Amino acid sequence: MNVPMNDNERQRLSRSYLLPVEDTEFLLRDELRGIRFALEYSKAELLLREWGIRSTVIVFGSARTPWPNSARVSPTSTSRRAPSAAWSPSAAALSRTMGAPATT
Predict the structure, then answer these.
(1) What is the gyration radius of the CA atoms in the chain, in angstroms?
(2) 99 and 80 Cβ atoms separated by less than 8 Å
(3) Cα–Cα distances in Å, from 11 out to 19, 68, 70?
(4) Domain range spanning residue 38?
(5) 15 is a domain residue
(6) pTM of whole model > 0.85?
């Protein structure tokens, strides 16, 4: 059974007729990774502003919680110092600001 279509009905049913924001297959293309990243950043930035948050602190590191057995640390491992290659003038200034001794 052949159903007659309006002149533009085939066009409206085509994927190319979708707005980009509605076309998830298009949005998930590898070429649009940078745009998706910008959108994620913008979403977080706008929500923080709406909530009245003016500044944040970012902490880099693992979010994994160790097992209780492996969480016990020997006293010698906590007294280790950072290698001297990690020292920089800005690290020393930060250490003074934070009240911690700078490593040399």
Answers:
(1) 27
(2) no
(3) 13, 61, 62
(4) 9-54
(5) yes
(6) no
User: Is-contact 36 42, C-beta < 8 A?
Assistant: no
Domain count, the chain: 1
- For CA atoms 64, 55, 86, 93, give the dihedral sign: negative
Average pLDDT over residues 14-23: 87
Q: Rounding to the nearest 10 degrees, give the CA dihedral for residues 31, 26, 37, 62.
A: -100
Residue 20 lies in a domain: yes
Q: So what's the pLDDT on residue 60? A: 74
Distance CA 5, CA 30 (A): 35
Residues 6+ apart with CB under 8 A from 17: 11
